[in-house]
Amino acid sequence: MNGNSGMPRGDFIVSVILVVFSGWVIHMSLSMRRFGELGLAASPGLSPLVFAILLLVCGLILLRRSVAQRGYRMAWSGQKTAVFLRAVETRHFIVVLATIFIYYLFLGVVHFVMISAVYVFFTIWYFKGVVWWKNLLISTLSATIIWYSFDQVFLIPLP
Amino acid sequence: MGFVYLIQETVALLTPMDLLYCFVAVQLGIIFGMLPGLTATVGIAILTALTFQWDPGNAILVLIGVYVGAIYGGSRSAILLNIPGTPASAATCLDGYPLSRSGNAAQALGLATTASFLGSMAGLVALSFLTPVLGGFALEFKSYEVFWLAVFGVAICGNLTAAGDPVKGWVAGLLGIMLSFVGMETIQGFRRFTFGVSELMAGFGIIPVLVGTYGIVEILSSLSDTTPEQRVPQIGRTLPHLRDVAANWVNIIRSGVIGVFTGVIPGVGENIGSFVAYDFAKRASKHPEKFGKGSIEGLIASETGNNAVVGGALVPVLALAIPGSPPAAVLLAALFLHNIRPGPMLVIENPMYMYRFSAMFLLASFAMFVLGILIVKPLLKLLMIRKSIMMPIILVLCMVGTYAIAGRPFDILVMIAFGLLGYPMRKLGYPEAPFVLGIILGPMVDENLRRGMLLSYGNPAAFFVSPISIALVIMTFFTLFGRTKALRSVFSIALRPLRSTMRSVGRTFGLLRRNGNSMPPSTDDEDDRRRRQSEEETRL
């Protein structure tokens, strides 16, 4: 209960989100339809209500702890944001996420083998995995093998 | 009779096709386990989705094989690269890597294989003979007891997986439970938190959630990580020396028992089992100073411990439908997907299934031992594959697996969404295990809470009446508040007379170091010592 995670700012933000979220769930649970004479005891909102209260308590514990560690002191500055955005890790994360989303959007629109091969090729190329011709071989072969194994051998429908 | 049934079911599985499935699955599991970034849970989640349309017998055999193989496979990269392939092998790094650095990589790999096999055998004993006992006991459970059992499972999982900050573990568990409430509930058919989205009527599918929480998070973490990858050392003969194994028989039995019992606790898992076994081995060792510097005892303890957890974790899966570890949680979901209903009724409805399940586990353990000893060098080349090549291919498999369950693109979106939720959770120290356990146990919690309330005409006191309920409430209470100062001081006073008895029992079973003063002094002993010292100083 007295844990110290060493990230008071993160804890502060999460605790505020938890308090707001659990408050919203409590409100939604109380406004759910009630059946029969038992009222709330038979309502579909009973379980969400009970667990939202417990989450609210946990959120308040986190909030109290992070406030005690001055986690509410947010020192935002343009320079820090720029450094964060320019960091290799952030850039990699954004690129990976964006490619996953693009891959998802084109699934079912373009043939599975083609879009999968393009996705694998682009990711390996971006992270400088291997030389381009090896990359082309790996991406085409992997996409084809996956398609053939699942669509043709196991008869699992692919997007 | 249990032993006879186990043999019968094992013999029935000895067909060429079943053996082929088993060996291929175990080998795949070893590959999943040894590749950093791919855990047993990710492996089982992907394979559950990919084997969804198979015959249930073959599909479950494959999943058990992947589970057993992956937990063992993690030791490869732990020993050779000092990177645990799975979290279960984190304790193996401590002594496995120093052994490898000192030129004993092959010996370490051989011992890890043997210890893993012996740990699996301890798990098998528990799985075959503890499951029917626990299953029979579970027949006494009604709505009230099942509700408390699920709550206790999430609470203890949160406590143990976020040991430094249990509140975060509980938050993760509670969030999981709350997300499981999305969709149409089972008692009155009411739609909760669906916001008119028809795809949400059935709630979040367990496979998209699992693949997202483990697979997508791992892909995002691995590809964002800028740490340079390591080179694999050369190795020689991996067959272990029998004298090393024989000299550690007490260590192996102790670690096996610890692993099994850690596994039985809901949601705790292999990583904790291996660390607890390692800690006990260190306390009992004649050479505790060697631990962390290449101790064979330490390596054997951690590997026996983590593989014993596998069998232990499957006991509550079959008997109570509550998973003992995150990979077991996925396996439980797979059983449900294949219309196999584990839980208290399994003993009545399909009493032989637990022996069939145990036979699959036995076969997978043998396959692990054979493959672990024979196929070493070719597999080490896989460790040289860069993450930038491996991860995009894994993502394609995640997409295929998630889509294959229901053929809905919406499930892929759910998978990505849970990956996006899981990534900051991991970065901020919120463990995935209680989150997933919460999602799996959420419907059980909801149904039994409300059914219990209906049965008792809205009287919540009914949840605190039966002896099993009371025991579970007390256990949950101490799990949640056992660390608070007030309770600890009360305990300290109440348990003082018992402490000396426990210490002598501990010495008898070799749980304390031989020099007699290895156990960390308790707070009371420390206080007494300080008081005596202060009195001494005053007198002087």
- Fraction of helical residues of chain B: over 70%
Radius of gyration of chain B: 24 Å
The secondary-structure class of chain A comes to: mainly alpha
Radius of gyration of chain A: 25 Å
Number of helices of chain A: 6
The number of domains of chain B is 2
Please report the distance between the alpha carbons of the first and last residues of chain A. 47 Å
What is the 3D form of chain A? Answer: flat
Number of strands of chain A: 0
| Total DSSP helices of chain B | 23
- Name the shape of chain B in a single word: globular
What is the N-to-C order of secondary-structure elements of chain B (H for helix, E for strand)? HHHHHHHEEHHHHHHHHHHHHHHHH
Largest sheet of chain B: 2 strands, antiparallel
Biggest sheet of chain A, in brief?
none
The domain tally of chain A reads: 2
Multimer state: heterodimer
Which stretches of chain B of 5+ consecutive residues score pLDDT under 50? 513-525
- Share of β-strand residues of chain A: under 5%
Tell me what portion of residues of chain B adopts beta-strand conformation: under 5%
